[in-house]
Design a protein that fits this description.
With 216 residues, the chain is mainly alpha-helical. 66% of the residues lie in helices and 5% in strands. The chain has seven helices and two strands. A two-stranded antiparallel sheet has the order 1-2. A hairpin with a 5-residue loop joins strand 1 and strand 2. The longest helix has 32 residues.
Length: 216
């Protein structure tokens, strides 16, 4: 009976405390609830654009660290970066070869338009072009010879401009052969010479000029 009375008195005291101090119960419950809630981590944002070879990790303290993998040892090359001495020497050799080649060949071919020692050039004229000419075929070939000699000299003096002129000239010759319906092998040769030779010379010239300025 004594134990039952003691338990009953303790229950009355707890109920009375809860009725008298409801705000304390609410504060204590809120504190324990907040301790159990884990605030989700916000996504990591960067004010800069990361390199694809960078890896981002989060440490135990929540700090963001960036590990540079291959980026730290990979040089960044730009269009203005000077090439190495070996690459520069190779490019200069290729440029000199193309320059002399596309300067000599047009001059020789143009001079032969007056002599026909290498071949009879009039045979390469298509009937379509012959019908459009206001003068004879030999006269037209002499004009072509003069143009080719001037183009060869221009390549030697101004490689970039001369390379573009020779490229357009070779493509025009190839188009004339294709329209004529014959000498397709010569047309393919002229297209390859234009795109892989004279056009390369024109594109390579400003690159070497910029590299020479950077190394000075």
């Amino acid at each position: 009976m004594r134990d039952a009375a003691k338990g009953y008195s303790l229950l009355n005291i707890r109920q009375r405390n809860q009725a008298e101090f409801p705000e304390a119960k609410h504060a204590i419950g809120t504190r324990f609830a907040a301790a159990r809630v884990i605030e989700p981590r916000s996504p990591v944002t960067f004010p800069f654009r990361m390199h694809p070879m960078q890896r981002t990790t989060r440490s135990a303290t929540g700090l963001v660290t960036t590990a540079h993998c291959i980026m730290a040892t990979t040089p960044h090359l730009t269009s203005d970066a000077p090439v190495s001495a070996l690459d520069s020497r190779v490019l200069n050799q290729i440029h000199a070869l193309l320059r002399y080649l596309f300067a000599i060949v047009p001059v020789v071919a143009g001079a032969d338009k007056f002599t026909n020692l290498l071949t009879h050039w009039e045979n390469y004229l298509s009937p379509f072009v012959l019908r459009l000419l206001p003068f004879s075929a030999p006269t037209f070939m002499h004009i072509v010879g003069v143009i080719e000699i001037v183009a060869g000299i221009l390549v030697f003096a101004r490689p970039r401009l001369g390379g573009l002129v020779v490229t357009a000239w070779l493509l025009a010759i190839a188009l004339q052969l294709i329209l004529g319906g014959q000498f397709f092998d010569v047309a393919v040769r002229d297209i390859v010479m234009a795109l892989a030779g004279s056009l390369t010379l024109a594109r390579l010239t400003p690159l070497l000029s910029r590299n020479s300025r950077n190394t000075v």
